[in-house]
């Protein structure tokens, strides 16, 4: 355990450009590490970066357009749900109007302000100018 702690404390003091490895003889030898520049200039890394930038920004179906289209789709799905509910309500109203005379009279009075003979209609309009 002491050997591991001493190796760890020795390795903490080393610079970032070199690493010390124990050889079989027990003497530390210095070995250069890969620099970040070498990794970034790798042809595969460059190809992946160009692909990601192209698909993210320049392509007609880029990520920004995908997000906008997904938001538009969600809005359309909400509208679709609303209109399906309205269609169901209107179908119920049509069924009631076709089968119930009292519903026809109530609907005519409310929507078209129709009245019976010798009857007055008073409209009460509430002001929402609070």
Radius of gyration equals 39 Å
> Could you report the average pLDDT, rounded to the nearest whole number?
79
Order of helices and strands: HEEHHHH
Distance between termini?
79 Å
Strand-residue fraction? Answer: 5-15%
What best-fitting shape do the alpha-carbon axes yield? Answer: rod-shaped
| Helical proportion, percent range | 55-70%
Strand order of the largest sheet: 1-2
**Care to count the β-strands?**
2
Describe the sheet with the most strands.
2 strands, antiparallel
| Count of helical regions | 5
| Broad structural category | mainly alpha
Low-confidence stretches: 14-19
Would you write up a description of this structure?
It is a single chain. With 130 residues, this protein is mostly helical. It has 5 helices and 2 strands; from the N terminus they run αββαααα. A two-stranded antiparallel sheet has the order 1-2. Strand 1 and strand 2 form a beta hairpin. The radius of gyration is 39 Å and the shape is rod-shaped. Mean pLDDT is 79; it is low at 14-19.
């Amino acid at each position: 355990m002491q050997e591991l702690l001493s190796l760890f404390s020795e390795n903490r003091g080393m610079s970032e450009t070199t690493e010390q490895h124990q050889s079989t003889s027990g003497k530390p030898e210095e070995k250069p590490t890969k620099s970040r520049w070498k990794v970034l200039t790798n042809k595969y890394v460059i190809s992946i970066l160009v692909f990601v930038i192209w698909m993210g920004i320049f392509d007609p179906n880029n990520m920004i357009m995908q997000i906008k289209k997904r938001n538009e789709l969600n809005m359309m799905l909400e509208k679709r749900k609303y209109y399906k509910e309205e269609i169901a309500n209107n179908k119920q109203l049509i069924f009631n109007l076709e089968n119930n005379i009292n519903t026809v009279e109530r609907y005519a009075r409310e929507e078209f302000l129709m009245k019976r003979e010798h009857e007055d209609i008073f409209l009460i309009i509430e002001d929402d100018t609070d």
